[in-house]
Prior knowledge:
single chain; 8 helices; extended
Amino acid sequence: MSEQRDPTASADQGARAFIPDSSTLHRRRRRAVRQFALCVIVLVPWTVYLAVSLPDRFEARYWPLVWVGFDIMLLVSLAGAGAAFWLRRQALVPLSFVAATLLVCDAWFDVSLNVGRGDVWGSVASAVLVELPLALLLVLRARRVLKVSARLAWQRLGLTGEPPPLYRMPLFVALASSRVTRSDVEDGKGGEGDQCDKGEQDGKGDKDA
């Protein structure tokens, strides 16, 4: 008789090979936090500077190139999200968020650049009836895919009950590479920082011993 194999075993072994250890995740987390903090710190004075220095009127060169290029980016993101949905690929999630962001930007620029002009109401109608509802639909669809994927990963980890909301759910790559307990994860305390801190405390305890 031929030996029966779990079809998910090879996939699990392959996934573990790409999961970094807790110390590597901790370094990456700290580096990413510093990068985000730097962006915020730089953007605040830059925004204030633009608010006080930009002129009320400005004649832009290559105006058609600006909008045609923007619409091409929007078209590519929407086409990519549609293709990912058709092929049932996880790329649907980031592509949907990109397309939704571009749609909101499109609505903002259309309305704000036409304030004080006669065709501003056409831009408002386009934003309210087309661009913003489509952006909301893309976000809700991506959120639904994220929740389904999170529930499947939750079950694969052997956790009971329903997973916490997305804003409280830890990264699964951090859970897979740490020694966090199941009760901590189910209580929403299994964040990457908590796990790394536990690892560091365990390491200090070993050294003291």
